[in-house]
Amino acid sequence: MTKIGNQLPTISVVLPYEKSYGDESVQLYNMSGNVCQEWQALMLNDIMAVNDEGLWVHTKFGYSVPRRNGKTEILTQREMWGLVANGEHILHTAHLTDTAHIAWERLKNRLEALGIKLKSSYKAYGKERIELNNGGVIDFRTRTSSGALGSGYDLLVIDEAQEYTKAHQTALNYVTSSSKNPQTIMCGTPPTAVSSGDVFRDYRDKCLTGEQINGGWADWSVDHKTNVKDKDAWYLCNPSLGTILTERIIQDEINGDDNRRSEERFSRNAETD
Fold first, then answer.
1. CA-CA distances (angstroms) from residue 111 to 20, 31, 130?
2. Coil, strand, or helix at residue 147?
3. pLDDT tens-digit profile of 25-70?
4. Among the listed residues 221, 203, 218, the one whose alpha carbon sits nearest the alpha carbon of residue 49
5. Cα(68)–Cα(90) distance, integer angstroms
6. Residue 140 in contact with residue 94, Cβ under 8 Å?
7. What pLDDT, on the 0 to 100 scale, is given for residue 131?
8. What are the DSSP E strand ranges found in 68-175?
């Protein structure tokens, strides 16, 4: 039997709920020809939980997962449901233009594989857009601190959230303010010493201390400095290890760094607890 990574976050703050659209999102994604992993499905259930009034339990949800585990696929799964099943207006932002473009391409491919006929798909680099016949719209943008990126959205996605600054946050403060059921999702990796973002780390701290209202959080991390060659820790912190991620890939990454740098990267969240 193949050993796989820990499917549950090592740290999480999830508000109580009884109903979620997570299963619908997983079913829709699987119909497109891909298969949602167990940990992704569990995350979607938490992210897409709703209360008795049909409103999102978590108006904000952040999660941090090491690279190469497929964390951004959760964004694709959430966005597919939002467009197809809910006709949402979505703004997907990223730190890099390349990242935003790849996210547009990934979502477009899944929608087409599902057999969804797009009303329009705008490919201008840095200003991609997908529009469905049911009114669902998603715009992809690179974050800036110089001004807002539009308004009238139901879902705001912050990809590469480890680079999300307070200036960016100020520029995006009101993009979902007119929605009757807004939600913001932040997705990233544990910040490094050179990461420019501060919002992601602050949000995590507020969730863990109970200061964040209507907020949820999840991450896969160690709670103390750990030997980077400890394979048990690899499986603890990498939910896709044994599926889309292999031990060999991790070994190659470790060998590419000096030991001290590797250990610092591996224990990033431990240093913030």
1. 22, 10, 10
2. coil
3. 999 999 999 999 999 999 999 999 999 999 999 999 999 999 999 9
4. 218
5. 25
6. yes
7. 96
8. 89-94, 118-122, 127-132, 137-142, 155-158
Q: Residues 77, 25: contact at Cβ < 8 Å?
A: yes
Range from 69-83, 161-175, 216-230 that averages highest in pLDDT: 69-83
Tokens 């940990």, residue located: 39
Token pair 């990809």 in the structure block, residue: 159
Q: How far is CA 188 from the centre of its chain?
A: 6
Question: Two tokens at 168?
Answer: 């960016």
CB-count exposure of residue 153 (10 Å: 0-12, 13-18, 19+)? buried
Structure tokens at 50: 């709703």
Distance of CA 198 to the CA centre of its chain: 17
Buried b or exposed e, range 187-214, using 16+ CB within 10 angstroms: bbbbbeeebebbbbbebbebbbeeebee
pLDDT bucket at 95, cuts 50 / 70 / 90: very high
Q: Which two tokens stand for residue 269?
A: 């969240």
